[in-house]
Amino acid sequence: MNFVDVDRKLNGQKQIGQKQMNSQVLYREVQKMNQIWIWLIIAIPVVLSWYGAYQQLLLGKPFGNNPAPDWMMFLLLLLFGILFPILFYSMKLVTEVRKDGLYVRVYPFHLSFKRFPFESIQNYKVLTYNPIRDYGGWGIRYGIKGNAYNMAGNRGVLFEFADGKKVKKLMIGSQTPEKLSEAIRRSIEK
Q: What mean pLDDT is reported for the chain?
């Protein structure tokens, strides 16, 4: 199975753009949100919504001092007990280096890969950073130090892109930032 088939299978896409299909993947990394403390925080509204729905909808006992109507309790169960954990479980950062550029996708928020052509990269370096202090956490982040796409850990590659007269910074979190940096270097040198 090639990467195009894997992308179709993982992302449920029926078609991938012709440009992406013709571009050979030289480096690929898929990261998921796997910090246990985040999952423990996510578990709080999940458990509460399931318990409240069980109490009120199945046992017929009002949940809390000022109970919500049954339809709202069902809606809360659907949102926080089912959809919220599915969203976090399905989130992943896919980083690829291809012949024609750097591709990044934060699934399910990006419907397709964001392409950064090599010509726009002015500088890049492997860094250890503090995700909370520098970017406000994990995921798709916008901060004073630039933007970040990260899912786990505190290492990544900081890119500086030419954008007219401005330089835009983007931190891409990686569990193997040296390999990502090396793949970029090799691709730019070709």
A: 83
Q: Is 91 helix (H, G, I), strand (E, B) or coil?
A: coil
Domain ranges of the chain: 3-33+91-189, 36-89
Region 60-80: mean pLDDT is 89
CB 125 within 8 A of CB 61: no
Strand (E) positions, 108-151?
A: 114-116, 121-128, 139-143, 146-150
CA distance linking residue 140 with residue 125, whole number of Å: 20
- Whole-prediction pTM: 0.73
Dist CA 190 CA 187 (whole Å): 5
What is the number of other CB atoms lying within 10 angstroms of the CB of residue 6? 13
CATH class of the region 3-33+91-189: mainly beta
**Mean pLDDT within 101-128:** 91
User: What's the rounded Cα separation, in Å, for the pair 23 and 7?
Assistant: 13
